[in-house]
Amino acid sequence: MKSAIVLGAGMVGVATALQLQKRGWSVALLDRREPGQETSYGNAGIIENEALHPRPMPHDIRELAKIAIGRTNDVHFRFSALSSNFGPLLRYWWHSFPVRYGPISAAYARIIVGATREHEHLINESSAGNLIRRDGYRVLYRQQKALDADVAAAAVLTTAYGAKFSVMTSCELKTAEPVLDRVGVGAVHWLEPWTVSDPGALVSAYAGLFTCMGGHLLRGDALSLSNSRGGGWSVVTENGRIEAEAAVIALGPWSPDLLKRFGYRFEMVRKRGYHRHYEGGSPLNLPLCDAANGYVIGPMTKGMRVTTGAELAAPNGKPDHTQIVFAERAARELIDLGRPVELTPWLGTRPCMPDMLPVIGRAPNHPGLWFQFGHGHQGFTLGPITGRLVAELMDNDTPIVNPLPYRPERY
Fold first, then answer.
1. What does the pLDDT look like over 106-142, one tens digit per residue?
2. Among 61, 207, 347, 380, which one is most buried in terms of CB atoms within 10 A?
3. Which long-range contacts (CB under 8 A, 24 or more apart) does 301-304 make?
4. CATH 3.50.50.60 region(s) of the chain?
5. Is the pTM higher than 0.85?
6. What is the CATH number of domain 3-43+200-264+355-410?
């Protein structure tokens, strides 16, 4: 029986372990914490099939100026963090030009379109259907110009990929969400994404399926990864050292740091995000994105969760609550938000590659070492389908999509 160690028990790592297990591999899944307690826990809880294009960096000087002077809450940064992010951001900007962005978007869409299908298998097998709603989510607009522009962009996705949406008037939005005090000029309702009432619990359910099927869930330090003397790979767990013929790096934003030890250099744009739960207010029926203010608010098991956009910070920079404070203030204009559940907001990091595509494939110089990281804002959505892709590659099976756009050698 072929054996593998998967490093990282977020959505990407857990789904990869399951996909290997389904193909007859003996798999050990290692993390320093319980499954789904890092980045996979802190997202907006949406399994997206309409996010068919990654978000490029703007080239319009006015848009860049808005970011620089803090006039948008979508992206927040401190000038002190530019030195550690300058190289990756410059490459991100370079890949955002149409001639390069077009092929990137096409490759991105190929994995997004199959995301819900792969989740469906795992949801059914793990009996996690109680966590899922299949009614989509809504985007509220405060200006007609922004609504018109996004409706036009949505129509392009419908033509190209069959993405389904409806346009709601302000009256229709008020009828659907009567607790809203303000409804803007209208909304776009994306009809087919799935929403999750507890993202961490979904990852835990998948991890439970993994262990029920005979997988080994272990605590340990990924930095202990090393080549075994007889070939293959080994890692130290709290129960001692284990070995396997293959190892998969699925550590999200921590992957590049580990891989430096083996001579690999991956630049990454690490986008931090915050969330906070609120209770005692007026709950929404479906998640709502406030397009003008760069946050999502939606019903969760722990209360209404407000999730922010992207913060560019130094790798070990102190938390900066500017975005979550701004988002809370904007959300209170829309609904009775209630009182905070947590004393301080949660903070996590999203691993974004400069070309906006994940890194999936065999390590160029180390037999048995595989990469599965860099999913940006969509690791929660993409984990099962990219897990299937890397498992197929490891098993020398026909891959579900062409793997070339995601190959590690591009770096």
1. 999 999 999 999 999 999 999 999 999 999 999 999 9
2. 380
3. 301/197, 301/198, 301/201, 302/198, 302/277, 302/341, 303/277, 303/278, 303/279, 303/338, 303/341, 304/277, 304/278, 304/279, 304/335, 304/337, 304/338
4. 3-43+200-264+355-410
5. yes
6. 3.50.50.60
